[in-house]
Amino acid sequence: MDKDSSFTGSIPETYERAMVPLLFTPYAIDMVRRIAQRRPARILEVAAGTGAVTRHLLQEIPSAHIVASDLNPAMLEQARKAVVSSRVEWQEADGQALPFPDASFDVVACQFGVMFFPDKARGFSEARRVLKPGGMYCFNVWDGIAHNDFSATINHALAKVFPEDPPRFLARVPYGWHDIDVILEELKRGGWSKGITHEVVTATSRAESAASTATALCQGSPLRADIEARDPARLQEATDVVIAALTEKFGSGAIEGKMQAIVFTCEA
């Protein structure tokens, strides 16, 4: 597991407390709304993180059994604390090599996870393999960073802290894989040939302050490792610069900004 997908130390707790409400809850609600229309009995969640989607699946589909998987054991441990239900089975698993039988799920869901897969076509192929005929694969990716206000501001501010070698994690990984034609080609390579739809979905990110937003991104995501790789002693300095940039752009007190993602649904 490289630093781009390493959610370790204090990151899982900060991620659950700060990142989930800041960025992921609106899109979790959107994804679960799409899935609930299918009334699935068995759902596999890939890259489940700390359970942002899982908790909404439990609420909206009360009869479903959910296998929530993630590559990172520290994130799963945090998820177990955050989401407690006998209908959820937590399992460590690589989305590119799923340890499940063929045709064993009605739905496979992956919220903001495929961008982290080194071999995306293989991940798409694995999702198709474990789906029953007629099953649904639902995943989303962030649109370009320019369409995501808080992250764009943070990315720009960090370039001022490290002008000779800016931390590039945000633009490179979570916001770096959004070309629809490329994604469709990778789906084709993964064996998907029909029933593919996509939709650009805009939402609003809300936070109690610029400080909570800066802490969430700079200290609750792999961006932290990118900052510390340049100088571990400057993490708080970098966070403070980001706070100032967010405050200047969005104001003091509670802040809000635009988010934009692309949601794909595929029929097996």
Your description of this structure?
The protein has ten helices and seven strands. The chain has a seven-stranded mixed beta sheet. Helix 1 (11-36) packs parallel to helix 2 (52-60) and helix 1 crosses helix 8 (210-219). Helices cover 44% and strands 22% of the residues. It is globular.
Short structural description:
By secondary structure, the chain is α/β, with parallel strands linked by helices.
Throw out a few tags for this protein.
seven-stranded mixed beta sheet, single chain, Rossmann fold, 268 residues, 7 strands, globular, alpha/beta, 44% helix
Counting copies of identical and different chains, the oligomeric state is single chain
Continuous helix count: 10
Summed over residues and divided by their number, the pLDDT gives a mean of 95
Distance between the termini: 30 Å
CATH topology: Rossmann fold
| Overall domain count | 1
**Quantity of strands, as a count:** 7
Structural class by helix and strand composition: alpha/beta
